[in-house]
Amino acid sequence: ADVTFSTWPWQHWAKERPSSVALSFDEQQFSWAELAEKVDEYAKGLVEQGLKRDQLVAVVAPNSVSVIWLLLAILRTGARYVGLNPHLSQQALSNQLALLECDFIWYPAKSGAALDRVQGSKQAGQQALPHRLQLLPPQTPRMVPVTWQASRAATLTMTSGSTGHPKAVVHNAQSHLASAAGLLQWMAFDGEDSWLLSLPLFHISGMAIVWRWLYRGAKLVVASSQDLDVALGKVTHASLVPTQLQRVLENNRASSLSLKRVLLGGAVIPVSLTERAKQAGIECWCGYGMTEMASTVTAKLADTSAGVGAVLPHRELMLKDGEVLVKGKASGMGYYRNRTIFPFSEQEWFATKDLASWHDEELFILGRKDNMFISGGENIQPEEIEKVLLSHPAVDQAFVLPMADKEYGQRPVAIVSTSPELDETLNEDLDGYMKQQVMGLCRPVKYLLLPSHLCAGGIKISRKQLAQWLTEQH
Ligand code: 4YB
């Protein structure tokens, strides 16, 4: 049966198993008792600096142990946490801050230049940054006058969809915990296990790791090193996007891993990848999910089919005209703008814009509705072509985008990353390969190398940015 919490999850575990290790980074470890005490101290420090319940704090930082303290301490004060990608451009960061109208901001001492520029740019109509919080214990003793309420808005998580227009999804602890409980009914994660914070906390995939940890009272490992391989050697569980797992396997360090299982998601998961992982002794779980549903919605233990499994407990899913609709206890509270939560209604289905079909009780994602384009009167679903490209042994990542064409209206262009690098022979090699596999108008007319500057930062490459870059190429 699902665990229910009558107090903050970390206080629950501080009572149940006070001396078990809760959090570890570098050589430091904190037990649940120590963690609960530290969170209270930091929460008092935040209250002393003026933070009040229902206020919003933006945390602009890469993952670190400070970010974990902040998240828990902010929740403890009854305020709300929103993580922002520190690698965003100044413009994108300004846009997100304008949408959120936060009461406070936190960023590390050595933060990127973008924030300083946002701070410096007080041109007409632009506001300065919100007041900067510090992560410190209080100077004078005080209380935090808030009690645990699982239905209170707790976190906001940015999602850009494919449009590039950011939206902030509000979740309460209840929906995060329902999401965690449902996944962990299928994918074993014991109190003795440890999950690496392997994805950014400003994305739902990182946030979901924290809630699975809180739900189970297990161990969270925050890696200080940038080296994913090293960090993976110290944990039993990790969440990875397919390209991360690909790199780990290529570096061939997998054999030294203590990893029991990996949850994959966020993008198409090639069967060839999970098969290679299996040979390296890593058990892969395939997930399909989205921010609005607090991460994973369907999942399965990886097998030889390219589907994303069946619907997890606490979620409902149906197809309408081929589109995935979802709802359930794991659903967010609503979108946030103008300092207001615009609620998702409880009965209503959320339309994901993902096209899918069912085969043998398993869901297969076909692609996004809004990625489809028309070439010479034929509907082209880029993801179908991308799948074929990904089956080429040298192709690591593939995107197909439309390029304007006088005769056909639009024609597909492929943008790929390859290893070993096919730089010189790229067009020849891939065209030869694709000729054998794809018919007529679906065959890309050109192959380009994925520019590395578009890979920085987030966990996904934005098709909007790719399209922009494509218009700049000739
Ligand atoms: C997919 C897809 C798939 C999403 N095939 N398209 O905890 C996890 O579930 C997790 C573990 C590892 C890596 C990522 C995750 C996630 O949460 C991913 C959730 C996510 O990507 N949310 S999102 O809001 O940024 O994007 C949602 C969209 O991503 C979906 O609507 C799909 O279009 C796409 N997507 N999983 C194919 N397995």
Automatic annotation (TrEMBL):
Keywords: ATP-binding, Ligase, Menaquinone biosynthesis, Nucleotide-binding. GO terms for biological process: menaquinone biosynthetic process. Gene3D superfamilies: 3.30.300.30, N-terminal domain of ligase-like (3.40.50.12780). One of its GO terms (molecular function) is ATP binding. Residues 11-336 form the AMP-dependent synthetase/ligase domain. InterPro entries: AMP-bd_C (IPR025110), AMP-bd_C_sf (IPR045851), AMP-binding_CS (IPR020845), AMP-dep_synth/lig_dom (IPR000873), ANL_N_sf (IPR042099), ATP-dep_AMP-bd_enzyme (IPR050237), MenE (IPR010192). It comes from the Bacteria. Residues 384-448 form the AMP-binding enzyme C-terminal domain. This is O-succinylbenzoate--CoA ligase.
